[in-house]
Amino acid sequence: MSSSFRSSVDIDARKIHEYSRSPHGLSERQLSEVRDLVLSVQDDLGWYDDEICRLESQLLQLKSRRERARKSQQSLRSLLSPIHRLPNELLIRIFVYVCQDISALPTFGLSVGPFYVSAVCARWRLLALSSSKLWSNFWVRIRSGSSQKLEEAVVLCLQRSKHQPLTLTLYVQSSESHSLFRTLFDYSIRWQRVMLFLDSEAARFFNGQEGFDFPALESVTVAANYHDVPVNLDIFIRAPKLHTLWPTNANIELNSVVLHQITDLMYNLKRSH
C-alpha cells in the first residue's frame, strides 16, 4: 500500500454503541456486519504497522546521516584549530615540556605522557616517535607482581629514547622486582639524573650491584623509609661526572672516591630519640 492510504472502513461509532446496548443481542445480519468490520480494521492495522516500520526506518536513516554530518562537522572544525598551524619543531618542544612532568598520568606503575601524546593522531604519533628526548624522562614503580606489560612498556621507552641521557625516578619495592630493576641497570651508561626510592629488599639488591659504568651520571637522589639497610654508593665509583648527591631520609654509606667529586650535597640529619 502507498503512504496515501485512506482507511477502507467507515465505522459508525454511534452504531457500535447501539449494538453494544441492544437488549435482545445482535441479529445474524448485524453479526455478519461486525465480522466484516473486524476484518477490514485488521487490514487497516496491518497497513499502519507497515507504515510505522517504514517511517521508523527512515527516521533511523536520518539520525544516522545526522550523526555522520555532525562528526564531519567536528572533524572539519578541528582542522581549523590553531594547533594545526604550529610547526613540528614547536609541537615537539611542547610535548617535551608536558611530558617532563613525570608524575603526570601514571598508569600500571609508569608515567605515560609520551604514550598518550602518540595516541592522539597520526601526525602526533610520527612526531612523538621521531623525538627521542620525549621518551628519556619517566617515572616507574617496580614492585612485587609488576606485570610483563610494565616491563615491555619500560623497555619501549628505553628503546625509543635512543641515545638520549636518561632522567629516571624509580620506586623499587620487594625482592621479586629485580628483573626490571636489572634491565634499567643495563642502560647505566645513559643515566644522567636518577631518583631512587628503595625499600630494604631493593637496597640489598642495589648494594650487590657492581661493575656498571655511569659516564653521563650527574645527579643522584636516594630516599628510603627504613634505616636497617644502609645504601652503599660504591656502585657510583665509575661516575666521573657525578656532582650532586641528595640522600633524603636514607641511611647511606659514603664512598670516599664518590664523595670527593660531589659539589652539591644535601643531607638530612635527624636526631634519634
Automatic annotation (TrEMBL):
It comes from the Eukaryota. This is F-box domain-containing protein.
